[in-house]
Amino acid sequence: MKLFRFVLIMAIFSWLGGGCNPKQSPDFAFIDRYLETWDRFAQGANELMPRLRKDGPEFQRHLADALSKNDSRAPSRVVFFGVVQVGGFIPIDSPVGQAFQARFGSAVPVFTDEKDGAKSFFAGDLYFWWEKHNSEYDTFPLYEDWRQRPFAKNVAIKMYESAAKNSK
After folding, report:
1. 10 Å Cβ neighbour count for 130?
2. Residue ranges of domains in the chain
3. DSSP assignment string, the chain
4. How does pLDDT run across 74-115, given as a tens digit for each residue?
5. The pTM is what?
């Protein structure tokens, strides 16, 4: 009888608490590993593209979940996801794009492609939004590292600044 009670209690706690599911979301260890892989790919490790493609949907799910749960670690990772792609875009219809828009509304301008009408968040706009709001959220050390690199300072950030000037 004691064993039955113990198993029943453990089952109830597992059910109520989400159990020991290794796929429990959001998984920031997975999110950060994925972003580290993107960073290595962006620095020339082209052999990582198949892994990025394979892990992309799970990454999107975890990061979107973190955004929807108002986790203060999520915004910096969204911004890094955009900027590590240098001039990249996060489609609004992607899980991360939808969750970011739901959480931040019109705080970041939406880019609309003239050819196909696709709506996205542009990395440069995410970068400028983060520069204004980074004190409100937890930082992502890899983003801070990226920001100090010569390529980021001399190419990516200058490209974002130029794009901002030309859009005014």
Report:
1. 23
2. 24-166
3. -HHHHHHHHHHHHHHHHTTT-TT-S--HHHHHHHHHHHHHHHTT-GGGHHHHHHHHHHHHHHHHHHHHTT-TTHHHHHHHHHHTTSS-EEETTSHHHHHHHHHHTTSSPPEE-TTT--EEEEHHHHHHHHHHHGGGS---HHHHHHHHSHHIIIIIHHHHHHHHHHT-
4. 999 999 999 999 878 999 999 999 999 999 988 999 999 889
5. 0.83
